[in-house]
Amino acid sequence: MSAATMDASDNIIADSRKDALQLISEVEKVIVGQERAIKLMAIAIFARGHVLLEGDVGVGKTTLLRAITRGIGGKYERIEGTVDLMPNDLVYHTYIGEDARPHVEPGPLLRGGEDLSVFFFNEINRARPQVHALMLRVMTEQTLHAFKREYRLPHMIVFADRNQVEKEETFEIPSAARDRFMMEIPILVPSERDVRKSLVFDTRFHNTESLTARVTPDILAYDELNAFSVMLQNRIQASPIIQEYAMDLWQATQTPAAFGVEIDGIDIDQLVHAGASPRGMAMMLKAAKVHAWLMGREVLLPEDIHAVFHETIAHRLVFSSMYEGRRTALARELTAGIIRKVAVP
After folding, report:
1. For the chain, where are the alpha helices, taking DSSP H only?
2. Domain 3-224 falls under CATH 3.40.50.300
3. Do the two domains 3-224 and 236-341 of this chain adopt the same fold?
4. Which of 18, 19, 17, 55 lies closest to 36 in space, CA to CA?
């Protein structure tokens, strides 16, 4: 690579980092109390990974995604998961027009065309497995066959929320499907009293449209993020020592007892049915590289892995049936225990 090419690449890397930090700052101005979630979502965007969102209703997930979409550009679409939702509802919908004749219009996956950048599937576990199957295929292939042609969705990142309170008429996403998502990010009610008071009494937080309009538009170029992500992943390096550390972490997700991981009241030998997958570890390293870049480094450090480890690994772990009902809490304890027990280089 010539010196001129290297200089140009350096400038792109540096300028894009400024844009990424501006995006995070702009979204934090309108979404309060979610600083960690916003940073993780920005990491997923630059790592080009889909995201599961963990959190109760009314915590601002829609507003957060609308704010992010305004900052990165492109189109935003959403769909509500319901028990009667069919795969075709993602693709098109039919209606009777004023002429009393049936009409067909594009559904949420097709309305934005190739400009679709953010797709929000709200309460995905209320939809049936057939709907999950179509959504996961589109996420993986970035194409959709409909009306005897192929539609491309090259820039789409999917954010999916699960209803974790009500269990009736829900269809839990199986482990193989969860593995398709790069991260599961918690969106929790802020604990600070002043922040809570602002969310309730400050009227600017009550209108999504006016609130998200405060975000500077098109800070990023959504249709350039794929190419930039490839450049970034090639730029950030993982030393042989860090590679071995990542392998130890991976092994610890499969055999935590071998590394001395313990959880009170849990038979650690019986807890894990399956650890992280190769795809999961690859996604973890991609996210860690983006974190290193945001921190202004071109080499991967253990702290970059720690910053994304739980969110990229916990939802991929498969627990024994006796523990699956407590998976959220146990997964957090397990990943924290792995970080504590595996020797850091």
Report:
1. 3-30, 35-47, 61-72, 108-111, 129-141, 175-178, 193-201, 208-212, 225-235, 240-254, 268-271, 278-294, 302-313, 327-341
2. yes
3. no
4. 55
Q: Name the token pair of 27.
A: 């979204």
pLDDT in tens, 138-177: 999 999 988 888 999 999 999 999 876 666 667 888 888 8
Reading the block at residue 253, the tokens are: 């997700």
Q: Residue 57: which region, alpha, beta or left (left: phi > 0; alpha: psi -120 to 50)?
A: beta
The two three-digit tokens of residue 41, written as one number: 């979502």
pTM, 2 dp: 0.93
Per-domain boundaries in the chain: 3-224, 236-341
Helix axes 302-313, 240-254, angle to 10 degrees: 30
The residue type found at 274 is A
Rg of the chain, C-alpha, whole Å: 21
What tokens were used for 189? 């009610």
* CATH architecture, domain 236-341: Orthogonal Bundle (1.10)
Q: What is the dihedral of CA 44, 47, 51, 55, to 10 degrees?
A: -20
